Amino acid sequence: MQIPMQLPVWIRPAFWGAVFGATAITIVGFSWMGWTLGHTTTRLVAEARESAVVSALTPFCVSRYLKQPDSSKQLVLLRADTSEYTQRDIVEKAGFATIPGNSEPSSGLASACVKALRTASPSQ
Prior knowledge:
By secondary structure, the protein is an all-alpha fold. The protein has a domain at 51-124. 68% of the residues lie in helices and 0% in strands. It has 5 helices and no strands. The protein has helices spanning 11-31, 38-66, 71-80, 84-94, 107-119.
């Protein structure tokens, strides 16, 4: 007959203390200390990269739009439409929001370009 092994009395409180401590530090770390998971960091870096490209290329988009042969007329037509989606579509279809090396226009660049064109003067 085997005698059952008895665990020391302190094991149970130590185990639960470790479980609650790990849970608490995880909650504090992700909530207040700025910890992130790998995919979150990757997403944030991609968003920052896209934002940097958009802010760098917006002046070129505006400049190209204003260098059209009939830019004053085109600017009036763009501003006449109140739908931001339609305005962005105009800039995208004209090719002013296509980032070099890409085949598709960037909707972020188109939106930034439209926002800048709303305040731009035709003589720029």
